[in-house]
Amino acid sequence: MSEFFKGKTILMTGTTGFLAKVFLEKILRTQPQVHKLYLLVRAKTIDLAAQRFQNEVIRTYLFRVLRDQWGKDFDSFILKKIVVISGDVSLHNFGLEDEKLKIKMFEEINIIINFAATTKFDERFDISIDVNTMGVLHVLNFAKHCPEIKIFMQISTAYVCGEIKDEKTIVQEKPFEMGQTLKKSSKLDITEEMNLLKKKIDELRSKNATESTIKNALKDYGIERANLYGWPNTYAFTKAMGEMQLVHHKDNVPLIIIRPTMVTSTLKDPFPGWIEGLRTLDSIICSYGQGKITNFLGHPKTILDTVLNVVNKAFCQCSRDVYDDSYKKFKRVTRLVEVYKPYLFFKGVFDDSNTQNLRRATSNNIEVAAGLNFDPNSINWKDYMMNTHIPGLVKYALK
């Protein structure tokens, strides 16, 4: 494994996100012979990008082990390995204006990992499609300019499969083809979706709608379009379209699509229980622990598919005095119930054959077994939840 990363140059997008930070820390700590990491940070200027990187990434508690490991040489190590780039995946070539930098990146990059995403289930449709669908295509097109590219890795989501109500359903590890929908009777055209979206925005602006009205209308519109083709929300819909873009346009780019499920805190590396903010089921755990809720509706046979170290989306907060809330809050709770219902009553079983095959292929590698173990069967889940994850929530997320 160390031989693969030795001398390689990596481009990461979505650098300030939780999963990207965990990956970055792991690479810097365990693969110090990596040549360089270009880190794309969304900001208007390079100074603001560098500031975000310092405040939101490298100075976070997650990097304390790495900092201790390098001691007084930490800053020089980071300076040697890291190049922060100001850019946006929703723009062609990330909006980079420095031609010399762009050419240098094209020449050097060997690995691209696209962590960039908006993970709100009911995000405005224009934002979600710009990042999760068109952003993926922009990153792929950038990769095509890199002659030394070895891997393009896309971080998707297991829930592109949509809502599964039959517990006998096996969700296959199969990427979406262009135009494929979850309703066999329909056909999806991404270009047409973009045109309809533009028409919707123009219509709203022609009526002098307020920004708040436009925001809410585009949230509703995203869910409406998702439901039309069988997806439960805007997030899953736009991530599925992102997969379509990759599969259809990848040409000779070596592609890997990762589909994590719900994500929780670190198991033990670099230390147990680290998490940032309340994620997915964490809001339920915390609300229950704080006495804000006494129960939560769900299917008793639903399997909570959690992946350690990875995070997708914050859940709704519940309140004991909900009946005294305003109509606005009631509408929001109602919306959140509809948005999250597919996951609370999810009955499908994910086929993880590819992961199992990878695990078997690396089972005899001592290095992988020691530092890159990803076998969920080796985890005592009750012990992890009670003695690692929940204490981690209290220490890092509720501070």
Automatic annotation (TrEMBL):
Entry annotated with the keyword rRNA-binding: no
UniProt-recorded Gene Ontology molecular function terms: alcohol-forming long-chain fatty acyl-CoA reductase activity; alcohol-forming very long-chain fatty acyl-CoA reductase activity
Entry keyword set: Lipid biosynthesis, Lipid metabolism, NADP, Oxidoreductase
Catalytic activity entry: a long-chain fatty acyl-CoA + 2 NADPH + 2 H(+) = a long-chain primary fatty alcohol + 2 NADP(+) + CoA
GO term, biological process aspect, one: suberin biosynthetic process
Record CDD domains: FAR-N_SDR_e, FAR_C
Boundaries of every Thioester reductase (TE) domain copy: 13-306
Entry keyword NAD: no
Pfam families hit by this protein: NAD_binding_4
Source species, domain of life: Eukaryota
EC number: 1.2.1.84
Family according to the record: Belongs to the fatty acyl-CoA reductase family.
Entries under PANTHER family matching the protein: ACYL-COA REDUCTASE-LIKE PROTEIN, PUTATIVE-RELATED, MALE STERILITY PROTEIN 2-RELATED
Stated role: Catalyzes the reduction of fatty acyl-CoA to fatty alcohols.
Protein name as annotated: Fatty acyl-CoA reductase
Organism: Phaseolus vulgaris (Kidney bean)
Taxonomic placement: Eukaryota, Viridiplantae, Streptophyta, Embryophyta, Tracheophyta
